[in-house]
Write a structure and sequence with these properties.
alpha/beta; about 25% helix; single chain; 7-stranded antiparallel beta sheet
Length: about 375
């Protein structure tokens, strides 16, 4: 690409960077890679251009992929479920990313694998990875959202198995409900298997380190009115020793992806949890300063075929726990029932508890 332009201009790294980022933003993934490879080749003795290439390619892909690919429990759970389900089947992989799950399906004997990825840069890289692993003839990659796939073009008989890993820490944040509902309605054969089969939003009262910014005195100014613009939900590390559950665990919402009923994209739910001491001494059970929320994914092959990033479970979990802090710590009584509420719509989720307003159910 650089050869078609003023060579002198491409000796300026700021021009290479600006143009590459602009091309990536406009979905020109192949042109980006061509330009970057040429700029590196034209400057063999300058490490700067290699670093620019890496920067652009990394900036075009969400940062969580690094931790996700290193989440061995997640990878193994998907592999086991895929190997048990895809032999001789037509398989659709939604949000293929690196192409890993599509390649596992092909290796496990799928009749045909179609993968889609709406991030153009990742889709281009997935094609290269699949080719490097000798599976181009087994896997077809589409650079688009799953809603843009046409059944008559990609699989007239309908897909028998749908693989998806488009979950955020609150389950909802990557449009999973809308995507899977469309796929089931428009692209699947009757009785299609979904991997995973279901997902749950799990909650419990908790104590966790607070990271709230004090806004009442910032360089002598009261910025308290800015608090409404700060996200109430905070990411927590599940192995953090400062994170302690102060109740039993409840399932706030469960989504069954293979159910014949439509997936509701709006819902109001609640669950009662019972306070405990959380390892603290004393009959009162201590205090909770918020609600911890995480996910549980069920692959449908029995009790052992689940993945859960519960507090303290696995240091390698790439999904974070989400903490919903109370305005101030709330005393709890051992054994009392506390109601946790949730409302979701599309990708949004808000969570609260009666405990915050002093509301209590009888133990």
């Amino acid at each position: 690409m650089a050869g078609k332009h003023n060579k002198a201009a491409f000796d300026r790294p700021e021009i290479v960077l600006t143009l590459a980022l602009a091309l990536a933003k406009n979905g020109k993934a192949a042109a980006v890679r061509e330009m970057l490879e040429e700029s590196v080749a034209d400057h063999p003795s300058q490490l700067l251009y290699e670093r620019l290439a890496r920067y652009v390619l990394a900036a075009s892909v969400p940062a969580y992929h690094d931790a996700m690919l290193a989440d061995h429990a997640r990878n193994a759970a998907y592999r086991q479920a895929i190997e048990a389900a895809v032999q001789g089947k037509n398989v659709l992989d939604i949000g293929t990313g690196s192409g890993l799950l599509a390649m596992i399906a092909a290796r496990a004997g799928a009749k045909r694998v179609v993968a889609c990825e709406m991030n153009k840069t990742m889709a281009e890289t997935a094609k290269r990875i699949i080719a490097a692993n000798g599976l181009t003839d087994r896997i077809e990659v589409h650079s688009c959202h799953s809603s843009e796939l046409d059944r008559e073009t990609v699989c007239p008989e309908g897909f028998d198995v749908v693989i998806s890993e488009i979950f955020s820490a609150n389950v909802l944040g990557e449009g999973v409900l809308q995507s899977l509902e469309h796929v089931r309605e428009k692209l699947c054969a009757k009785g299609a298997r979904f991997i995973p089969e279901s997902a749950e939003i799990r909650v419990a009262l908790a104590q966790f380190p607070q990271t709230t910014v004090a806004l009442d005195d910032v360089e002598g100014f009261d910025l308290g009115l800015f608090a409404d613009h700060l996200l109430p939900a905070k990411p927590l590390i599940n192995s953090d020793p400062g994170l302690t559950l102060m109740s039993d665990v409840g399932t706030l919402v469960r989504f069954d992806f293979g159910d014949t009923q439509s997936l509701p994209t709006t819902g109001l739910s609640q669950v009662d949890v019972h306070a405990n001491q959380g390892g603290n001494e004393g009959a009162n059970g201590g205090e909770a300063n918020g609600i911890a929320q995480w996910l549980l994914i069920d692959f449908g092959n029995g009790d052992s075929a689940t993945y859960e990033n519960a507090p303290g479970r696995d240091e390698g979990a790439h999904w974070s726990i989400v903490g919903y802090p109370f305005a101030k710590p709330c005393p709890i009584v051992q054994g009392e029932a506390v109601t946790i509420h949730g409302f979701y719509h599309d990708d949004a989720l808000v969570i609260w508890s009666d405990l915050e307003r002093g509301g209590r159910d009888p133990a």
